[in-house]
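Exercise 7. Predict the joint structure of the components listed below.
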Amino acid sequence: MSEIEELSPRAVRLREAGHKLTNARLTVLNVLENHDGHLTSAEVLEQVDQIDPSIGRASVFRTLDLLTSLSIIRPTYMNSSMTPTYVLMPDGHHHHIVCTNCNRIIEFENCGLSAIAAELEERLHVKLTGHLLEFYGLCDKCS
Amino acid sequence: MSEIEELSPRAVRLREAGHKLTNARLTVLNVLENHDGHLTSAEVLEQVDQIDPSIGRASVFRTLDLLTSLSIIRPTYMNSSMTPTYVLMPDGHHHHIVCTNCNRIIEFENCGLSAIAAELEERLHVKLTGHLLEFYGLCDKCS
DNA sequence: TTAGATGCAAATAGTTTGCATTTGT
DNA sequence: ACAAATGCAAACTATTTGCATCTAA
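Solution:
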């Protein structure tokens, strides 16, 4: 690492969990953050390769797995089958609408789930740390 | 088709959407219904093969895609990376808790999202038909 | 009868692994 | 200094495709 860069809070989380801040990891994180999530592994691979072709595919996958295991990202399924889409989990939660016709993603804030989460924690004796909420339907252009 | 069997409501939906009720399709549907969803494609392949080894892999995948496109099932991501898990969407929605430690799935009813959905439809001019809600956290045994 | 679906096997992704080398801390 | 992480390329898995055949409607 030759340059001194701003470390994103997520990079700090990585380091605090005892992992090294390598070029490969910071680049992957950077790509995800610059695209606000919703990237397939293929897209991450491509972006990373564009920024630094010396980074190997394997490291990208290893980083995605690592970030997933730390709940920094969450793999999700959008379209039909195949590739997952990696979603950043800013505060441990994420929600969006997927248009089942054009596959557009519409983000929205305030999902109002905290009450539901609290009730579930109480009733089922679980400890919830995050959630993913996807609505499916038709967007304004497709309805 | 030699036997007269009860057609599940989902099979009826398939037929009403203009698709043939073939042995391969009915078998896949059967497997999913008997396991209440949460099967990976590999598990579906295995079960189908056990029931009728003459059904080809390709047809299983084609059926999973078809069921997905009809919103009868929804691919979802549970553990780290790789294979999706197919979840039945009984009434167009599904919700569960994933234990991030032991990967146990805890189902629950009544997610109380209809009010939120209605509000979003109004505000964003979308038409919502279903949703998937996943909570992440620790189950009672892991907390 | 016939468009739609199938099974097969080969082709194509997509992801992981082993290992010698490099790099953060 | 040294455990942790890397890049490479080969091995593996998982999924898709093309096509002749079959079958539900």
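Discussion. The beta strands of chain A are 39-40, 73-76, 85-88, 93-99, 105-107, 127-138.
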